């Protein structure tokens, strides 16, 4: 399933596409909110692995404005709960991710992204 924790790690890998290939903007999405267990320690440990601006921009694109523009130094419960919600509870069920560079489209169906490339697209 495409959650923003996964999306934040995905880049286009089409042949010759190695710049401006992250993040992959969504279009025509259907999202579902599913509760997930809140684990503050996991969130604190995972935070350094996140590309913050990409996460904030993607959350906004999906209609969630709860994250601050800059990654906060103080991680209070309110921040961690917003971070948890954006990262783990927003599920993209249907839609398309499109590379900003080469415009390759990666469809999402039943929550599963198709990241496979045709033979001629493999680099």
Automatic annotation (TrEMBL):
Superkingdom, taxonomy of origin: Eukaryota
Stored InterPro entries: Trm112, Trm112-like
Pfam family, any one: Trm112p
Signal peptide annotation: none
GO molecular function, one term: protein heterodimerization activity
GO biological process: rRNA (guanine-N7)-methylation; tRNA methylation
Spans through the membrane: none
Complex and partners: Interacts with TRM9.
Family designation: Belongs to the TRM112 family.
Name the UniProt record assigns to this protein: Trm112p-domain-containing protein
Taxonomic lineage of the native organism: Eukaryota, Fungi, Dikarya, Basidiomycota, Agaricomycotina
